[in-house]
Amino acid sequence: MEKSGREPYFLMCERRWVFHVLIVVAGIFGAYTYLLRGNVFCNAQTGNVVLMGLALGSGEWGEAVYYLIPIFAYLMGAFLSELAPNPVKRRLPIRWDTLLIAIEMLVSLALGFVPLSAPVQISQVAINFIASMQYNTFRQAEGIPMATTFATNHIRQIGVGLAKAVRHLRTGDRSHRTKLLQHFEMLL
């Protein structure tokens, strides 16, 4: 609670339920690209960087260059999501985060019409791009930094929260519990 006794105010885009929905969507994107579009996860780029490094180490230059495509799509998503909010706010009667949700819905709908026979890169690059914009736009849920497109941060934060719980067993300090429980909730 705030000092005035009122509940803190959070924008709709910062509400936990919005993050829950975004995490589910990201999970669906991950399952979609892994199961149906090339056995890769497009929500983050660590795997592509590792695979590019392996290709470079093996002298497979063409394959290494191939990994620049999803990495570049992800980079461009972050780039656009950093530049877009202010012009959107000045020119449109809608917030950037709301517009991004609409874009994600349209991309998801469009991907539903891409035949399985189409090159997997079409779906992968589209998801690389929108996952990056989502990750960069939705940064905190009710005041707690959160990731919506991959679970690694939540797993790390749970580990940190559990360490704080052990560290503060004797002091009775429970200030870390809210953050710990929210990361656990997001991971579930």
UniProtKB/TrEMBL annotation:
Q: According to its UniProt record, what is one Pfam family this protein matches?
A: DUF1275
Superkingdom of source = Bacteria
Membrane-spanning intervals of the chain = 17-35, 64-84, 96-118
Check the record and name the InterPro entries matching this protein.
Answer: DUF1275
Please provide the record's keywords in A-Z order: Membrane, Transmembrane, Transmembrane helix
Could you identify this protein by its name? DUF1275 domain-containing protein
Lineage, highest ranks first? Bacteria, Bacillati, Bacillota, Clostridia, Candidatus Alectryocaccomicrobium
